[in-house]
């Protein structure tokens, strides 16, 4: 039997074929499907129920880039998590179990001396002392300063005593606060590393809080400031009790302490402005207090510029002890600090005025005191400070010419410190004689050491390996060697093998010219003349005036440890401020390399040049 094949062609139908139409249709459908499947799928399809009964279907995880077996994936994830937990557990055990750590390297001698030098300021505090002052033989003193003066009648309690007496001279005190603040601004990281940052900030605030009391700090315009509290002149033979005639502990003072005011004192006002301005940068994170300091500094600098005159007229107590030779250097010095504190260009204009530099002595190359940085002559420090501005910000016209002059003068000053140029004599033991053999040489040496060390750090931060003295090039290490040599001399590397810092080393002065340190703290009150026996005794002071740098040796490296000879044995606030600054600058902190803080001092200064426009946004189709 034949029929027509629907795909074309004959189709023979055999009667013997027992397959039904349904079977044949199923076979055709299966063949059509197999043409579209791969081999694996075909094997699944062709396998009968009996073939798949004993097999378990595998599960897979699609990770996007690869397909993996689900069981393998779960084992891998579990292993990773287990290892993470195990490692974390081990780390936790290592941290929790106590173990010995190697002790930190001992601090160098400069850091050790610095800890002690700061304690001198604790011993010099006036007013109500904090409980943590750390000087057991000191107590509250002069709690009626200012209030007992009929012309002032306001509180002038606080501040620091100047030296071995109980007078508060604002001129050197303000300079001391400026120096301490400058050292913190430059070397904050070092102070923090040795654990002294909070201490020195507290000392600075003790001084600036007092300075704010000495004038109307809430006003924009003032007409007077306090110059000093107490009197020390005994040259007229008077037996009237005062701070030099009497030898008493400050805690026992019962005589009158007059207040001296001034109405035209440009030098004092500008130095006080510098102190407050520099401190405002130290406390810039305490905005309220920093703003208060800036406001006071503005009023003081304005007063100094308008009411011209020296604070120490001839014959005055100020002229006898801390005479100011000029106020032009304070205009430059104070103007620089005011600029850094406010960012106001008007202060920089004053500080860089060519006439100002000329009056301040920037071109007095033949002067025997040229380049000697002191509480009286701030020009060398101001030139270093403004050289910093040129090195790191370079404000350009119209300041560039005078800034370049200051920079060149700073180079010349650094050259003058080197023995090869014979600008200053040196003792056989190596101490530079910046005051030309006159008494009390150490205060000048530490100031020079600070400027040399600081300037070397400026040059290093500016990627400058050294500087020129004429045709000769000297590396920054030469400056650091000079700074170290002066500090080493003071700390004991001298012909007498003694330290000139009380309490440092095995051999140091035992009889500093200091009332509080020389009178026993035994509960007995010694009157004005009652302390004379302690002044005149040859015994060592019963109280150790830790950290005090005495006046120093003579030009032949000789030293007389005699209490009444103040030219050898008296320490001062200004001298110790220079010592602290020099020590922190040259100290070698073993925990890392600490250079200067390049940017903090410029934080108030706006951008020197217009901000460039932002780049155009990306093109979008």
- Contiguous low-pLDDT stretches (5 residues minimum) are 1-18
The average pLDDT score comes to 89
Counted beta strands: 9
Structural class: mainly alpha
CATH topology type? Glycosyltransferase
In the sheet with the most strands, the strands line up as 5-6-7
What keywords describe this structure?
21 helices, mainly alpha, two-stranded antiparallel ribbon, cellulose degradation, Glycosyltransferase, Glyco_hydro_9_Asp/Glu_AS, disordered N terminus, 621 residues, three-stranded antiparallel beta sheet
Protein model, in words:
It is a single chain. α11 runs parallel beside α14 (379-392) and α14 crosses α15. This protein has helices spanning 21-34, 39-46, 49-52, 70-96, 109-123, 170-193, 197-213, 266-282, 287-306, 317-321, 328-342, 345-351, 354-360, 379-392, 400-416, 442-461, 476-490, 515-518, 532-536, 566-569, 573-586, and strands at residues 2-4, 10-12, 60-62, 67-69, 168-169, 225-229, 259-262, 466-469, 472-475. The chain is built from 21 helices and nine strands. Residues 1-18 have low confidence and may be disordered. The protein is 44% helix and 5% strand. A hairpin with a 2-residue loop joins β8 (466-469) and β9. It has 621 residues and is mainly alpha-helical. The protein has a single domain (109-595), classed as Glycosyltransferase, CATH 1.50.10. The radius of gyration is 40 Å and the shape is globular. A three-stranded antiparallel beta sheet has the order 5-6-7. Strands 1-2 form a two-stranded antiparallel ribbon. It has a two-stranded antiparallel sheet with strand order 3-4. Belongs to the glycosyl hydrolase 9 (cellulase E) family. Keywords: Carbohydrate metabolism, Cellulose degradation, Glycosidase, Hydrolase, Membrane, Polysaccharide degradation, Transmembrane, Transmembrane helix.
């Amino acid at each position: 039997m034949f029929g027509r094949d629907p795909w074309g062609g004959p189709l023979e139908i055999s009667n013997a074929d027992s397959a039904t139409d349904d079977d044949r249709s199923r076979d055709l459908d299966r063949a059509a499907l197999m043409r579209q499947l791969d081999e694996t799928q075909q094997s699944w399809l062709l396998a009968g129920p009996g073939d798949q009964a004993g097999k378990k279907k595998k599960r897979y995880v699609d990770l996007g880039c690869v397909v993996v077996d689900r069981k393998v994936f779960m084992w891998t994830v579990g292993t990773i998590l287990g290892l993470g937990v195990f490692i974390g557990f081990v780390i936790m055990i290592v941290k929790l179990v106590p173990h010995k750590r190697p002790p930190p390297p001992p601090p160098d001698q400069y850091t050790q001396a610095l800890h002690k030098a700061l304690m001198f300021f604790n011993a010099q505090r006036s007013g109500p002392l904090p409980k943590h002052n750390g000087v057991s033989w000191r107590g509250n003193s002069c709690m009626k300063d200012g209030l007992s003066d009929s012309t002032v009648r306001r509180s002038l309690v606080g501040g620091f005593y100047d030296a071995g007496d109980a007078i508060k001279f604002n001129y050197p005190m303000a300079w001391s606060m400026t120096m301490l603040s400058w050292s913190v601004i430059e070397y904050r990281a070092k102070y923090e590393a040795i654990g002294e940052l909070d201490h020195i900030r507290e000392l600075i605030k003790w001084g600036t809080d007092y300075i704010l009391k000495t004038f109307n700090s809430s006003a924009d315009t003032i007409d007077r400031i306090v110059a000093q509290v107490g009197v020390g002149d005994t040259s007229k033979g008077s037996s009237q009790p005062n701070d030099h005639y009497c030898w008493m502990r400050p805690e026992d003072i019962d005589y009158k302490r007059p207040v001296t005011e001034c109405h035209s004192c440009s030098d004092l006002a500008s130095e006080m402005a510098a102190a407050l301005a520099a401190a405002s940068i130290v406390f810039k994170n305490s905005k309220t207090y920093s703003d208060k300091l800036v406001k006071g500094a503005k009023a003081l600098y304005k007063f100094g510029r308008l009411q011209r005159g020296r604070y120490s007229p001839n014959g005055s107590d100020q002229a006898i002890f801390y005479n100011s030779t000029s106020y032009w250097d304070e205009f430059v010095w104070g103007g620089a600090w005011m600029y850094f504190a406010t960012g106001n260009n008007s202060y920089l204009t004053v500080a860089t005025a060519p006439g100002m530099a000329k009056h301040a002595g920037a071109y007095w190359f033949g002067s025997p005191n040229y380049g000697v940085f002191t509480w009286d002559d701030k020009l060398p420090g101001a030139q270093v400070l403004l050289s910093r501005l040129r090195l790191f910000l370079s404000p350009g016209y119209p300041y560039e010419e005078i800034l370049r002059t200051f920079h060149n003068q700073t180079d010349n000053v650094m050259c003058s410190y080197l023995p090869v140029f014979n600008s200053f004599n040196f003792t056989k033991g190596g101490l530079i004689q910046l005051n030309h053999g006159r008494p009390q040489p150490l205060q000048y040496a530490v100031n020079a050491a600070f400027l040399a060390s600081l300037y070397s750090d400026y040059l290093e931060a500016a990627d400058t390996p050294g500087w020129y003295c004429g045709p000769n090039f000297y590396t920054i290490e030469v400056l650091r060697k000079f700074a170290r040599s002066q500090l080493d001399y003071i700390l004991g590397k001298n012909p007498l093998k003694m330290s000139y810092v009380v309490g440092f080393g095995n051999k140091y002065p035992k009889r500093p010219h200091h009332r509080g340190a020389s009178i026993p703290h035994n509960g007995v009150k010694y009157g004005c003349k009652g302390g004379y026996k302690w002044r005149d005794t040859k015994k060592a002071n019963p109280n150790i005036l830790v950290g005090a740098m005495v006046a120093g040796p003579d030009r032949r490296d000789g030293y007389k440890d005699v209490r009444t000879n103040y030219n050898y044995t008296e320490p001062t606030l200004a001298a110790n401020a220079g010592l602290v600054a020099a020590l922190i600058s040259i100290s070698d902190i073993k925990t890392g390399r600490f250079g200067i803080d390049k940017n903090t001092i410029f934080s108030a200064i706006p951008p020197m040049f217009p901000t460039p426009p932002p780049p155009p946004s990306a093109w979008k189709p």
